[in-house]
Amino acid sequence: MNRLQVRQKELPLSVRIEVMVYLVMNKPFIEFMGKLSNVEVVALQKFVWDKTVEIGLRLKGKSFTRKDITKRMIPTPTYQRQQKCSERVYYCKGVMCIHSNPECARNKIHGHLSAMQGAVQQWLEETEPPAVRK
After folding, report:
1. Which pLDDT tens digit goes with each residue over 68-82?
2. Given pLDDT bands bounded at 50, 70 and 90, which one contains residue 2?
3. Contact 113/45 with Cβ under 8 angstroms?
4. Of the candidates 118, 106, 107, which has an alpha carbon nearest to the alpha carbon of residue 23?
5. Other Cβ atoms closer than 10 A to 19
6. For residues 50, 56, 58 and 62, what is the CA-based torsion angle, rounded to 10 degrees?
7. pLDDT at 55
8. Nearest Cα to 79, choosing from 54, 44, 105?
9. Which of 51, 105, 126, 129 has the greatest number of beta carbons closer than 10 A?
């Protein structure tokens, strides 16, 4: 499977629903990731990113920025140094290493998922619950 196919992989509806439960209910993604293929893990990261941005926009409105999420993530060059990886930064950022070093890539993706989940949890805590109609 080439890079373009990896990026275009979409998770089945049942998996997307389960992912939303994990994201909002703050359930650890690590076991869930173990059930997925490498290509699906990449799709999972993209899906969670998209949903985190959507939730951020809905809960924070115009004050939302990408940085609200990315500031929680370990920068790729830092992650690569920690892993003693000599690949080009783009190789890691583009998630191409999921095929050559899946354990490292999955670890990085798990960190990103946790960061996104942390952002969602914070936003939910800061949001006033809707008034209950009587």
Report:
1. 999 999 999 999 999
2. very low
3. yes
4. 118
5. 20
6. -120
7. 96
8. 105
9. 105
